Amino acid sequence: MLRQHHPDESNARPGIRQPASVPGLPAPAAAAYLKTAGFLLLLHGGLSILLRLVLDKIPVFSDLFSGNTLRSFVLSGTLTQLVLVLLPTVIMLMVVRPPASDLVGGRAKAGSLILATTVGIPAAVVFQGLNNLLIFALARAGIRINIPMSSSSFSFSGDLLLSQPWTVWLVVLLLAVVLPGLTEELMFRGLLQGALRSGCRPAAAIIWQALAFAVFHADPLFLLPPFLAGALLGYIRHKSESLLPSVLAHMTLNFSLLAIRPLLPHLTSQYISSSASQAQSLLYASLIAAFVAAVAFIPLLVLIGHRQPDDQFQSGSGRRWLPGWIFFAALLLLTGGLYLQSI
pLDDT tens-digit profile of 22-40? Predict the structure, then answer.
């Protein structure tokens, strides 16, 4: 008996499975989730606007969160890190479920941990000096930037902080160093940079997340250090193949910025106009300190750059330079809020 011919059988092709984890073969490309970066920032921006409206409509809450007290600092810091940073990150992680390799990477090497912990100290001095130079140049050019209403003056006004007991220092370190190092790294160098990297080139992913990190800080007088810090932390995350080194670098960077504030405070337009000679002396001191710190910062940066990332800790890498209109819309929303605070 002749076997009947079925057209479907002749056209069928056996599926070809690409072997995984074979040395010498590239890992299968994962689907890009680039839009997640924009939606994450939109969610963060929406929560920020909602919180601002609540504070404006309910004066009691506004007094609690914006006063010059330790209680206000604790409340505002906790609210920012848990509601505006951690909450949108967790929501997007539940929706998207990105690969763990994109989010936290692999096991960090000892050399990466040592370099990351060390580089934050000179980086803080360099970034602070460059920021003071920028503010001074803008003031001399007639561009006046107001102190944002959201800035907390309990912060870290030098002598005031030094005179506090150790319990206050412990609270400040927890909310200004430890908690941001964990939550902000998970959001920016974890989910945001991982999403950008899935569709963009590594350099583009680092730059765009650093720009978002600068706008996130919502301080027109302190935009340059967060951008430079975001770029540095993103570079460490890329080169070390792990999120832990960038977490440690973030903590040492924040601690160093906190420690040098009594000696090298931020320049403001108001301070420059009221005390021109003292502001100029402070600028010179900042620049000298920045040059000295750069002697240590640059070699550490070179050593970090010599570490070669391993492709196994990235599920995919795009070839684009631009992250898409959703990301730009979110960035525009955050920038608009920043502008309203500066006028």
Answer: 555 444 445 679 999 999 9
Tell me if 214 is assigned to some domain.
Answer: yes
Q: 334 in a domain, yes or no? A: yes
CA distances from 58 to 45, 49, 54, 139, 182 (A): 20, 14, 6, 35, 31
pLDDT band with cut points at 50, 70 and 90 for residue 98:
very high
CA atoms within 13 A on the CB side of 319: 1
Residue of 71, 211, 84 whose CA lies nearest to 152: 71
Q: How confident is the model at residue 12 (pLDDT cuts 50, 70, 90)?
A: very low
In the chain, what is the straight-line distance between the N-terminal and C-terminal CA atoms, in Å?
Answer: 90
Asked whether residue 138 is domain-assigned, the answer is: yes
Chain centroid, CA 319 distance in Å: 23
| CA angle at 157 for the pair 131 and 280, rounded to the nearest 5° | 45
Following DSSP, what letter does each residue of 60-113 receive, concatenated? HHHHHHHSSSHHHHHHHHHHIIIIIIIHHHHHHHHHH---HHHHTBSPPPHHHH
Mark 65-76 as b/e (b = at least 16 C-beta within 10 Å): bbbeeeebbbbb
Domain that holds residue 118: 33-101+109-342
What's phi and psi for 261, nearest 5 deg? -60, -40
Q: Distance between CA 34 and CA 199 in Å, rounded?
A: 5
Q: For 287, list phi and psi in degrees, rounded to 5.
A: -70, -40
Count of structural domains within the chain: 1
